[in-house]
Structures are given as structure tokens and as C-alpha cells.
């Protein structure tokens, strides 16, 4: 299991069976892209570009039984024998719940001015709904205050996979629209109390991962293998939850609060940069993301998606589509590896997906193929297809073996190489006018890496999970330099 599937790997299975490969092409809005080249492309990223880093609650907080926190589906799943590669769990993780001040200093020392973290739903509503737990929200109040005191802008994610176990037990979790409604209530409650200091909220993180892996393939929590029709309905309920959360935040938060989602978009790249292949990549981007990003940003499921799904298509109402398509202030894209290299085709749906050769290079995680051009093409195509004017790269980074050298330091040259090449391509995108406004490097520090436990290290800081010591890797110096110059390259 652990070799075949991974943290964010989609591959063809996700794209074709879950996101709805079209049987007929669908026409995206707009014509052929005509990027306006910035004559100062070598000068770096735009003024005001947001540099950040990111974590998630279950992966770092620990303290799973403290201050009234309820259980999450990942608590249950991680304690189920055979589910986690190294037999670990997130009970303690990075002990961030008690060490958050130390960790905020690490963020400050990086030189970033933004931090994306997630709020644990079961800390705030231990039963998923009903009575809130004031002590749970108190932790995030303290964290936000500490961030602001250190000159760091908080970006809060409301759902990073840790669904309250009570909702899974009571209504089947995301199988029920009752969970969508509970999420909207939770979002409104948090936004009302934090938006005096938190101006940016991500609703849900990576439905493309947690829906398929958790409800379709029995890989992630809650560990179900549902028929495709039910998986599609789960995804619809998550999209509905996003829409209800947007509405609740608009109603409850302070004026000026901004909201969007973060999705591990099915990353489509033209195999060769010709007009025909770029057009094919536009079609592929729209159709292979029709089940979540598409319905949110267009207010409808594409005809091709519904035709492909057939009897397995989600059931929905016009009112639900209206809620789902509530306007967003930004779109977060989690971009790691190319998932689909495409070329134009005379046959429907207008593109062909090419197979990956066995020799295709990858990082320490086998699924993390190295394709720096992905972070150029994906936001460019998404902005074109859906006319998005504000994009954040809400996650990008890589695992590395991160061995301690004889001098006790970590010389993660492979991570630096990965970041240098990806950020060069991102700088190319912003120079051409692609509306990427910020970048959040995954991750601040090594953490509980879901089904891989502590075996995969994505952090800028190395963590000794026995002593909880944090050691900066060489990539800290690299990233700090990029931020200081607001540029990659001389």
C-alpha cells in the first residue's frame, strides 16, 4: 500500500475515475493565452508577494486528549493496526500545542511574513456540532496573538482532514450533507471570533486527496471503499461545505475578511509547448478538475463530467449549486508533481494523457516526480480557464532523506535544488502576469506524514521526535535568502 499510494499522488485513477474524464470536449472560457512578458522578469517576484510556510493541526499539534478536544477520524485511523507505515500516530507529533511559541520563533527566523496553519475542528466542536469548546479556540487565539506579535500574518485553514469522529459515527461523515451544514456552522463560529486578527481563511484542504483516499480507496481515514456514485456524492458534500462556509464567513466575520479553498489540483502540463498542446492542457485542466474546482468556480458540473459519470453522478439541487459557487476571494493551489502530461488529440475529449517512463526522475518520495514547469503551467492554465485573479501556491515542497552529517547539520541539497528549480518557474509565471500572489512552502518542520508516519521528512527544520529538538536544515538559509531578495537567481 505505502509504495503505491502517497500523500498527494493522484495518477490516472483519480483523474479518470473520480474527476470525470470527458467523452466530449468542453470549451473553457476565453481564447488562446497571450501572456504579457514583463521586461523586468529577471528582477524577481512582484512587490508585495507573500512568502510563507505551512503546517496542519493533526500533523504537528499532539495533545490529542487535552483541554476538551474530541477525537478525529485520524486519531481512530492512526491507532488501527496496519494503517501507518511506521506504526506511529499523531498523539504527540511535534508537541506544537505546548511548543507553539518556540515554533513561531522558527517562522520568524525564516524571514517569512505569513504562516498557513489549520484549526482542528474537534478542538473547537468536540462532537462536530452542538456545544463549542472554549478551551479549544483559546489555543488558536494564543497562536494568532503570538504570530502577530512576531510580525507574521496568520492564514487559517478550517479543515485539513481531521473530521470529528462523532460526525463520522453519527451521520457517516462527508457521506451526509449534515456534515456540510455542521462545517458551515463551525466556520462561522471561528471566523466571528478570529477575524479581528485573521484576515484570510482557507475552507477545506485537498478534497482531491481526502475524498478519494479516505472514502474511495480505503487508504486514508476513515478507511472506506465506497462505490463510485457514493464517492462522487461525498465530493459534492465537501463542495457544499465549502460554499456554506463561505456564506457563514461572509455573514459572521469582520468586513474585509477573505476566503477561498486549497486544492491539490489535477496538474496538467503540455508535453510540448505548442498552441495545440496548450489548448489540450486547458481542456484537461477543466475536465479533470470538474468535480470540485470546476463546480465551485463555474457554478455547475460540466456536461462532460455528468456524461462520463452517468448513473454515478452526484445528486444535487439548483440551490446547492448556487451555494457552492458563492464568490471566492482567492484560490489556493497545492502543487508538487506533474500528474498529467498531455498532447492534443483529434478524438474526444481533445487531449491524450501520456504514460510516465520508468526513468522519470523523482524525489525521496517515489510519487513526487520532478517537474518544475508544473508550477508555471498549472496556475497559468487555471487562471485562464476559470478567470481567477488571485492565486496562492498554498503548498509546494519535497521530502528528503535529511541525514544528519557528522557535524550535526543537515545539508539537504536535493531539497534546495528542487526549490530553486520550482521557484524559477514560478518567477517566470509571475513575470508573465500569472496572478500568483503568494507561496507557502510545505512544510515548516518535519511532522506526522499521514500514512507514512514519521518516515518522510518535508520540513525546513529537522525534528527529533524523541527529544522534540528542532534543527535548521541548509534549506532554511536558501529560503531565507530568496525571501530577502524577493527573487530566485541573481
Automatic annotation (TrEMBL):
GO cellular component: cytosol
Keywords: Carbohydrate metabolism, Cellulose degradation, Glycosidase, Hydrolase, Polysaccharide degradation, Signal
Recorded catalytic activity of this chain's protein: Hydrolysis of terminal, non-reducing beta-D-glucosyl residues with release of beta-D-glucose
Example GO molecular function: beta-glucosidase activity
Keyword match NAD: no
Keyword Repressor: no
Enzyme type, top EC level: hydrolase
One GO term of the biological process aspect: cellulose catabolic process
Chain sites annotated for binding substrate: 59, 160, 205, 336, 442, 449-450
Signal peptide: 1-28
Gene3D superfamilies registered for this protein in UniProt: Glycosidases (3.20.20.80)
Enzyme Commission no: 3.2.1.21
Pfam families assigned: Glyco_hydro_1
Active site: 206, 395
PANTHER family reported in the protein's UniProt record: GLYCOSYL HYDROLASE, LP05116P
Family stated for the protein in its record: Belongs to the glycosyl hydrolase 1 family.
Name of the featured protein: Beta-glucosidase
Amino acid at each position: 500500500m505505502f509504495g503505491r499510494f502517497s500523500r498527494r499522488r493522484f495518477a490516472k485513477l483519480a483523474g479518470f475515475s473520480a474527476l470525470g474524464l470527458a467523452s466530449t470536449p468542453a470549451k473553457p472560457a476565453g481564447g488562446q493565452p497571450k501572456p504579457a512578458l514583463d521586461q523586468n522578469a529577471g528582477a524577481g517576484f512582484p512587490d508585495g508577494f507573500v512568502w510563507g510556510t505551512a503546517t496542519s493541526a493533526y500533523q504537528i499539534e499532539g495533545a490529542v486528549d487535552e483541554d476538551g478536544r474530541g477525537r478525529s477520524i485520524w486519531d481512530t485511523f492512526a491507532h488501527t493496526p496496519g494503517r501507518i507505515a511506521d506504526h506511529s500516530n499523531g498523539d504527540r507529533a511535534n508537541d506544537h500545542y505546548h511548543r507553539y511559541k518556540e515554533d513561531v520563533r522558527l517562522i520568524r527566523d525564516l524571514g517569512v511574513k505569513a504562516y498557513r496553519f489549520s484549526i482542528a475542528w474537534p478542538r473547537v466542536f468536540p462532537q462536530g456540532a452542538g456545544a463549542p469548546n472554549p478551551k479549544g479556540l483559546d489555543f488558536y487565539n494564543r497562536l494568532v496573538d503570538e504570530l502577530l506579535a512576531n510580525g507574521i500574518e496568520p492564514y487559517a485553514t478550517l479543515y485539513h482532514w481531521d473530521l470529528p469522529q462523532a460526525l463520522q459515527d453519527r451521520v457517516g461523515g462527508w457521506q451526509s450533507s449534515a456534515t456540510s451544514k455542521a462545517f458551515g456552522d463551525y466556520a462561522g463560529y471561528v471566523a466571528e471570533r478570529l477575524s479581528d486578527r485573521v484576515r484570510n481563511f482557507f475552507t477545506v484542504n485537498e478534497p482531491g486527496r481526502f475524498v478519494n483516499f479516505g472514502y474511495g480507496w480505503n487508504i486514508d481515514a476513515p478507511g472506506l471503499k465506497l462505490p463510485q456514485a457514493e464517492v462522487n456524492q461525498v465530493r459534492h458534500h465537501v463542495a457544499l461545505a465549502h460554499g456554506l462556509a463561505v456564506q457563514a464567513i461572509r455573514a459572521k466575520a469582520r468586513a474585509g475578511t477573505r476566503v477561498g479553498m486549497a486544492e491539490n489540483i489535477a496538474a496538467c502540463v503540455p508535453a510540448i509547448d505548442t498552441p495545440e498542446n496548450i489548448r489540450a492542457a486547458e481542456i484537461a485542466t477543466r475536465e479533470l478538475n470538474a468535480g470540485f474546482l470546476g463546480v465551485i468556480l463555474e457554478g455547475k458540473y460540466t456536461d462532460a463530467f455528468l456524461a462520463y459519470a452517468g448513473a454515478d453522478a452526484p445528486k444535487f439541487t439548483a440551490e446547492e449549486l448556487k451555494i457552492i459557487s458563492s464568490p471566492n476571494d482567492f484560490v489556493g493551489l497545492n502543487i508538487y508533481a506533474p500528474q498529467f502530461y498531455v498532447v492534443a488529440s483529434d478524438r474526444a475529449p481533445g487531449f491524450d494523457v501520456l504514460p510516465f517512463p520508468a526513468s522519470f526522475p523523482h524525489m525521496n518520495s517515489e510519487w513526487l516526480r520532478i517537474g518544475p514547469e508544473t508550477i508555471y503551467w498549472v496556475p497559468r492554465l487555471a487562471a485562464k480557464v476559470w478567470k481567477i485573479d488571485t492565486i496562492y501556491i498554498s503548498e509546494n515542497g519535497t521530502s528528503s532523506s535529511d541525514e544528519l552529517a557528522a557535524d550535526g547539520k543537515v545539508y539537504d541539497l536535493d531539497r534546495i535544488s528542487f526549490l530553486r528549480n520550482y521557484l524559477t518557474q514560478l518567477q517566470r509565471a509571475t513575470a508573465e502576469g500569472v496572478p500568483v500572489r503568494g507561496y507557502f512552502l510545505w512544510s515548516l518542520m518535519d511532522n506526522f506524514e499521514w500514512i507514512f508516519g514519521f518516515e518522510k521528512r518535508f520540513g525546513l527544520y529537522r525534528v527529533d521526535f524523541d527529544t522534540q529538538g528542532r534543527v535548521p536544515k541548509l534549506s532554511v538559509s536558501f529560503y531565507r535568502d530568496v525571501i530577502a531578495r524577493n527573487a530566485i537567481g541573481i
